[in-house]
Amino acid sequence: MSRRGTTAAQQFYGRWAQLYDLLAVATPGLSELRSRVADELHLSPGDTVIEMGCGTGANFPHLRERVGPAGRVVGVDFTRGMLEQARDRIDREGWENVHVVQADAATSSPREDVDAVLATFVIGMLGDPHGTVTRWLDGIRPDGHLALLDAGRSSRTYSWPVNLAFKGLVLASTPGDISAFEKPPWYVLDERIEESRRALSAGAVDVQDSEHALGVVRITGGRVAESR
Ligand SMILES: C[S@@+](CC[C@H](N)C(=O)[O-])C[C@H]1O[C@@H](n2cnc3c(N)ncnc32)[C@H](O)[C@@H]1O
């Protein structure tokens, strides 16, 4: 993402941080999807998991539950306001093994071989999803997992009403000046999601892809091969 795009995204999410959980946590069915994508990480007690673009930490309960008190959850996000909400959540829950870091997830790679990496509703904001997903895969230990959850246009028959609603949501939630975009933001979103899936298929094995919420939500997970 360009520097201008990054600043626009940080300003946008900074502005909405306090209200974000109304959407991120309270949307019906979303918690179940968060649980499903967390299952794709195949976590065990004691594991370390990194969440890229963690926002307010809406996935943390699902990750913390799976790694237990002996494991570690690290959330990475570049928006201070979102991280403040995430820290409040950590304090409220009293989790001592959940931490957040302010950094650019597009250039971040786990420093040690972690057990798993998760990113939900983030791929559409990355300038180079293929390169970023490949970098994330490189930081995961052999046999560890990467899972992605994203929303894009549905390709199902008779999906136009749901896609119309989805386009409205994309327009309302895209940071920056949309009139300056070369293509409608939902095209860009679909292309980036596709690119990230290609990177996952190229760099991982046992890739599983599933559609949810009338085909709008896609969950993709894969395992890093034992020898690479
Ligand atoms: C739509 S929110 C998703 C938050 C969370 N993953 C969830 O599922 O609720 C996107 C989040 O990604 C963060 N983000 C986007 N691009 C990022 C980047 N390159 N580095 C770090 N954070 C990023 C934004 O600050 C925002 O908090």
How does this structure look, described?
The chain has 228 residues and is of the alpha/beta class. It has a single domain (3-223), classed as Vaccinia Virus protein VP39 (Rossmann fold, 3-Layer(aba) Sandwich), CATH 3.40.50. It is built from eight helices and seven strands, in the order αααβαβαββαβααββ. The chain has helices spanning 3-16, 20-24, 30-39, 60-67, 80-93, 129-138, 160-173, 185-203; strands at residues 48-52, 72-77, 98-102, 114-120, 140-151, 205-212, 217-223. Strands 3-2-1-4-5-7-6 form a seven-stranded mixed β-sheet, with helices on both faces. α6 (129-138) packs parallel to α8 (185-203). The two termini are 29 Å apart. The model has no long low-confidence stretch (mean pLDDT 90). The structure holds S-adenosylmethionine. The site of S-adenosylmethionine has 20 residues, from α1 and β2.
